[in-house]
Amino acid sequence: MSKARSGVCELCLRNDVERTIHHLIPREYGGGPNDTSKLCIPCHKQIHALYPNLELAVRLNTIEKLRDDPEIKKYLKWIVKQPAGKLPRIKKSGYKAGKR
Ligand SMILES: [Zn+2]
Ligand SMILES: [Zn+2]
């Protein structure tokens, strides 16, 4: 299907994964078009499953800060072992369905 968006995920750094645009600072909190990063689908879902937009906007608004977060570190240890083609199940707790 659409392989056009494949590349390296900026968070887990896995290669050849399908990526989506994540707003590091959501627009509702003043983020601009450059405050985005390209994340694989599991990373993107995991971030939003763990933290509400407000916390992302004020505390975790760069890739470096995200990588430094203890919960995300745990997740990253796990995801780097997952094959790029596979979409692992992400815990739904706290995750609000819908696209961001
Ligand atoms: Zn990733
Ligand atoms: Zn996002």
Write a brief structural summary:
The protein is an alpha+beta fold and 100 residues long. Helices cover 32% and strands 14% of the residues. The protein contains 4 helices and 3 strands; from the N terminus they run βββαααα.
Structure description:
By secondary structure, the protein is α+β, with helices and mostly antiparallel strands. It has 4 helices and 3 strands. Strands 1-2-3 form a 3-stranded antiparallel sheet. Helix 1 packs antiparallel against helix 4. It is globular. The model has no long low-confidence stretch (mean pLDDT 87). One zinc ion binds next to strand 3.
Keywords:
32% helix; 100 residues; binds zinc ion; alpha+beta; single chain
Distance between the termini: 22 Å
**What ions, cofactors and ligands are bound?**
zinc ion
What level of helicity do the residues show?
A: 25-40%
Quaternary structure annotation: single chain
Task: Output the structural class.
Answer: alpha+beta
Number of helices: 4
Estimate the global geometry from the Cα principal axes: globular
- Strand elements, count: 3
Q: Beta-strand level of the residues, as a percent range?
A: 5-15%
- Element string (H = helix, E = strand): EEEHHHH
Low-pLDDT regions: none
What average pLDDT do the residues reach?
87
- Global Rg: 13 Å
Give, in spatial order, the strands making up the sheet with the most strands. 1-2-3
How would a crystallographer describe the biggest sheet?
3 strands, antiparallel
